[in-house]
Amino acid sequence: MRKVRLGELEAYVTGGADGEGGGDGPLVVLLHGFGAPGFDLVDLAQYVPGPQGLRWVFPEAPLTLDGGPGRAWWMIDAALFEQRMRGERVDRSDELPPRLPTARAELSSLLDAVERELGVPRGQQLLGGFSQGSMLAVDQALHAAEPPRGLILLSGTLIAASEWAPRAEAVRGLPILQTHGKSDPILPYADAERLRSLLEGGGAALTFVAFEGGHELPPAALRALSTFLRA
Do residues 228 and 175 lie in contact, with contact meaning Cβ atoms separated by under 8 Å? Predict the structure, then answer.
């Protein structure tokens, strides 16, 4: 594994012929969630079997939380977590984070650099993320001139509905894996279903995997991810 700068972001690159992203195998870009360190998802490269020569890129979000290892693609209101943990219903579907366009541009610069430096065209890259990372992945896919090869949404939710809904046709025919815990206290299951409806309404070839659990990546989600990558 190596840590490199790709476009405007730092990223961990692993897998491939040399364990550092070499070779010409397929490639997946996976974005971590809010509050996680940049290397949070890196171990998935070891635990999730994929096609021969699979390469992984794990971008590191640019914002830091209180000087610690936790990072974010955009900041959120801490009170939101408290409300959710108390079981209060919070509708985020119309939330449009002010930093979302900047985060999208940063991610786009990384994807362009992946094409230049790792030789995988934008349309052949698989893109996804966990939680906040999956929200940014959806936003990127809906705004890109060319959609990714596939989209991986692990415990995500619907935001920016006023912008996303008119762009839903951008995912027509796009293979999408969406997983979500039925007891997720942070991003409720019902809101994941709303995201599913929006994407399926746009014509996506979406596989939805529900599991018994919360805001996590249990074996059921990892098996589904492995199957999706092999396909």
Answer: yes
